[in-house]
Specification:
This protein is mainly β and 243 residues long. It is built from one helix and 13 strands, in the order αβββββββββββββ. Helix content is 5%, strand content 56%.
Length: 243
Amino acid sequence: MIRKNLSILLLMAICFTTVFSCKKITTSNADPTRNYFPLTLGKYVVYDVDSIYYFGLAGTLYEIKSQMKYVITDTVTYNKQLSYLLDVYSRPYDGAAEWIGISQIIVTPTANSLLYYQDQTKYVKMMFPIANGVTWQGNQYANVLDSPFAYLNGWNYTYQNYHLAYTNGLLTCDNTVTIMEADQNVNYQDVNSLPGYRTYAKEVYAYNVGMIYKEWTHYTFGYPDSAQNKSGYSVVMKAVEYN
């Protein structure tokens, strides 16, 4: 029960041996780069999710494996704009149980961006058109004055590896783009002697598929016994199935 609750809390705050293949698909669109996040009713992606939670001086560490499914289920008018409901489901890692709905995300396409409303926080998930080197403040609307979200302050999202192939270890796509969101550390190399933190976040999107990889890590460490005094989490999501 503790592990289940921890998994849900993290995912609400935010694989197999077979290797699949995504093929390039050409569709008609005024801006084809928007197809890296296709907004089509019924569209889904299933992920294997590996989560690690760190709990301070006691050195407590939990490792949790699960699966998540993101499905576009409906359209709504949100803030006077056409938006899409992205329902999030979870189940145990073995895939034998029924999907259980755990949260809902609102996705709003604008003239030049994609807004992502999750857990009462608005993110600028993508900018259009996509091109290597484009940067933007993806967390500009996050309430960074609230201490649980303070670490989101100042992230510069950047497009990298546009049009390149990418494999997440379970699925390979030949046309992707990477969004590097954060790569920060303070005293990370001196974890055993000085207090600090480590933050790393990136997402990879495949053409006509959506997100195929996500890594989100944030933890702090203190002194003394810095190696054990670690608090935070690390989550890795790898797409294994999509339609």
